[in-house]
Amino acid sequence: MAKRLLSLRVNGREREDAVADSTLLLDYLRETANLTGTKQGCDGGECGACTVLVDGAPRLSCLTLAASCAGRSIETIEGLAGADGRMSALQQAFHERLGTQCGFCTPGMVMSAEALLRVEPAPSEARIREALAGNLCRCTGYVKIVEAVRCACAGRLAG
Ligand code: FES
Ligand code: FES
Hints:
Blueprint: E1 3-10, E2 13-20, H1 25-32, E3 51-54, E4 57-60, E5 73-75, H2 89-96, H3 106-119, H4 125-131, H5 143-158
Helix pairs in contact: 2-5
One FE2/S2 (inorganic) cluster (FES) is lined by residues 100-105, 137-140.
């Protein structure tokens, strides 16, 4: 299959890779960029496990062509950690508040929450639930996840 050179930024680093026009952003991230934190769930836009940020906005990478991201900035769960590898406050809150059980939904959940907190640092519970509505979790019942996001808000506001 013919490939073209794709230039984009992934977690702050410029990349250039040969990519087929039909390659999904999810597959590009996992197989070419070796960023397997982004999860492949339903593969059909239903579960949110594959959520990443494209120019700061949450996007389902299983429904996005990699080629459509030329020149854009992509952020994955791996990009939230500090340069020293320490988890971000939001990731830490998920860990401490038990917002993670099997963990499969967690990267997508965290990326959706991250997008919300960047534009709305003190969202109501209703807004948090609305922002996470496209991210399905079969383990936690969502209470701990919402708590984790609220806890991260409080930490950000205090900092
Ligand atoms: S894998 Fe993308 S929405 Fe489920
Ligand atoms: S923690 Fe298992 S699916 Fe959410």
